[in-house]
Every structure is written in structure tokens, then in C-alpha cells.
Amino acid sequence: MSKFEALDGNAAVAMAMRQINPDVVAAYPITPQTATVQTFSEYVNNGLVDTEFVTVESEHSAMSACVGASAAGARVMTATAANGLALMWEIVYIAASSRLPIVMSLVNRALSGPINIHPDHSDVMGIRDSGWIILMSENGQEAYDNIIQAIRIGEHSDVLLPVAVCQDGFITGHGLERVEVYEDADVQDFVGEYKSQWPLLDLDNPKTFGPLDFYDYYYEHKRQQVDAMEKATPVILEVTKEFNDRFGRDYGLFEPYRLEDADVAVVVANSTAGTAKTVVDQMRDEGLKVGLLKIRLFRPFPAVELAQALSHLDAVAVMDRSISFGAMFNAGPLYLELMAALTANGVDMPMMDYVYGLGGRDILPSEIERVFREALEVADSGQVKSNVTFLSVRE
Questions:
Q1: 3-state secondary structure of 56
Q2: Average pLDDT over residues 102-124
Q3: pTM (predicted TM-score)
């Protein structure tokens, strides 16, 4: 049995953390993630979990404590956002290279500067090459579901990598929604008991963590991280299928929406996908064949699967809530990744990038409709007028 509760995205994640009951949580509050660890700390105080909650003086210390606890053999979780993630930077890489399956709720927020507390994806895109698996969430329900699945994904013996689960700060992090909450026993049965493969506290089998690793072995260890990422996609599909079967969901590596017979499509991640679905429905009522592809898995990037899903289209428009400064066209990371994926897999079609919503600027249905209509024009003409459009920015 399950029940429906009115929860914002932060509370939904905290609920999942309570049901998972990790051994250790080390975290520092930062807007717009604060409510996650605040709510979870109440669960700890009220004796609803057995978790050791480590209060630290900074996010750098938070991830350091997570690394130490995970290396010791504990199931470990944390949460952060934006500047907090930036302060973790050094240790984020250490967590991945040490093959520690820490799960982090990342409530996306614009990185300073200038100082801004509202959502965009500059924080998560900054760690895209750090070695973390990255899952994206459209709403509080998906954030809740992804956190539960992330435990199984990261801890799988073929993977052993940390996992970041993203949702948009304030939009879903503070937005009250109807969330289906599963029975505690069902969640605990799904995640299972964690048994670390290489616990530091196994005194019968001593091992070294955090060694000085020069050119004699560093390269091989990086190659092992590549192998783990390559094995992650089938594991994600396996865990997702089991989750879908057990809880009645329909998750995949991404979500196509009215895509099968579409002429053009928009590719987008996180909360904007919900607004875009409404625009798709409205334009379909006009007889226009438009569709949507919502990214769920960003790392490892499902290049082959995305190319197959989009190959029948006449044009694709990507919507990026971040910029890769100095990259080709100063485009967004999602556009650059998808262009490489389509090209490498022999899919040739016009592509445009629309950078939008930086620093939390609203994205309106009329603006998304503009993206679709311009994609239809490009499909007809075969000519891209501008590779990158900075949507609704004042010149």
C-alpha cells in the first residue's frame, strides 16, 4: 500500500532518506536545500531513524565526513546546492575516485557570481566530469523516486560510484505537490541492507584509502572509473525496471512525450519539462506534430539511446539552463553533449540551442511555444538561423 501526501521536493527527499535510514548523513544547510537536512534532522531527533547525523562547519567538511564514513563501510547520504557544491569541489572528485557510493540530493541553484539563490543548472553541470552518476527530476515525485533508486545504483558491485539526484531549487524544492509515498517496509526491502565490499574497518583485510597515487598507478585508476561508468547504464536500467515493476512507475533513461510521430522535438531537463508537456498538448490540438524528450540520466550520458529516440525527427531544439562559457557557440552543455551523440551515431539533422532561465528567471509557456515554432520553421527550411539563442534576455 502507498499513500498520497502534500510535500514539497525537499520534504519528499527527506521522506525518502527517512525510509532508507542511512547509517550516516553529514550535511550543511544552504538555500534552497536547507529544508531537506532540517527535516531529516527532526527525524533523527525524534528517533525515527538510526542515522548518525554529523553537523559540520562547511560543505567541504560535509563531503569529507561522507567520504570517511563511506570508506569505513557505512551507507551515506548528503544534500547540498550551488555554492555549497562548489565548496565540496575537491572532495567530490575524491568520493568518485575512491569508488564510494554516496548519494547526494542536489537542489539546483545558480552559482555565484553575482550572488543568486534561484535555480539554474550551473552547479550540476560543473561536476559533470567528476565521475558522479547524475539523475534529473521533473518534480518532487521523481526526486523521491530517484533518491530511492540511487541507493541501489551506486551500491551495485559493478558500479560503486556516487550518485547526485537533481531537482530545481524553489520550483520543485519548495513547490508543494501531490507525492505518492510508499510503505516504509517496501522501500527498505527495495534498497536492502548495505554490505560494503571494501570497508576500511575490516581489520582482517587491511587496505589503504587516499594514497599518494603518481603516474605509476593514477592512470589505471582513472581507467577503472571509466569502466564503472560504462557498466552503470545497464545497472540503472535493471534497477529502474525492478522499481517500475514494484511501485507502478514507468522510468527509463529518459522520458519521451508524444515523440513517436513528431516532426520536431524539444529536449529539456528537470522542472521545465512539465511546462513543456502542456505546450506540446496545446500545439498538438492545433495539428502540429511536436514532441518532447525529457532527460532523466545525464551521467553516464545515454548517447546511443538518445540518437535512436530522436533519429526520425526533422529538427531538434535543446533547452539549456546553463552555459558552457567559451565552448562552441557559447552553447549549453546539454546541447553540446547531444550534438556529439547524434553526430557520432550517424544522425544528421538541424539542431538549435536555447539558453534560458539563468538565475531562476521564469520560463513562460509562450517562450517554449516560440522554441517549438522556430524548430518547425527550421524543419521546413533546413536552415538554422542561429545555433544558440539566449531566450528572453535583455540586450
A1: coil
A2: 97
A3: 0.97
Q: Copy the grid coordinates of residue 76.
A: 551515506
Give residue-wise pLDDT tens across range 252-271: 999 999 999 999 999 999 99
C-alpha angle 226-334-220 in degrees, rounded to nearest 5: 10
CB-based contacts of 249: which residues, under 8 Å, 6+ apart? 145, 243
Alpha carbon distance 156, 225 (integer Å): 14
Q: What's the mean pLDDT when you consider all of the chain? A: 97
Residue 207: pLDDT over 90: no
Q: How far apart are CA 77 and CA 104, in angstroms?
A: 6
pLDDT, residue 129, reads: 97
Between CA 376 and CA 381 the distance in angstroms is: 9
Burial class (CB in 10 A: 0-12, 13-18, 19+), 51: buried
Residue 222 pLDDT more than 90? yes
pLDDT per position as a tens digit, 355-386 = 999 999 999 999 999 999 999 999 999 999 99
The helix (H) or strand (E) run that includes residue 4 is strand 2-7
Greatest Cα pair distance, the chain, in angstroms, is: 69
Q: Is residue 283 within 8 Å of residue 372, measured between CB atoms?
A: yes
What would the pLDDT profile of 82-104 be if each residue is shown by its tens digit? 999 999 999 999 999 999 999 99
Which helix (H) or strand (E) segment is 388 a member of?
strand 388-390
**Buried/exposed code over 10-21 (b: 16+ C-beta within 10 A; e: otherwise):** bbbbbbbbbbbb
Name the H helices within the chain: 9-20, 34-45, 59-72, 82-87, 89-97, 122-126, 140-155, 184-191, 218-247, 272-285, 303-310, 333-344, 365-381
| CB of 169 closer than 8 Å to CB of 269 | no
Closest CA to 324 of 126, 88, 109: 126
Beta-carbon contacts of residue 124 (< 8 Å; ≥ 6 apart) = 85, 106, 108, 134, 164, 166, 298
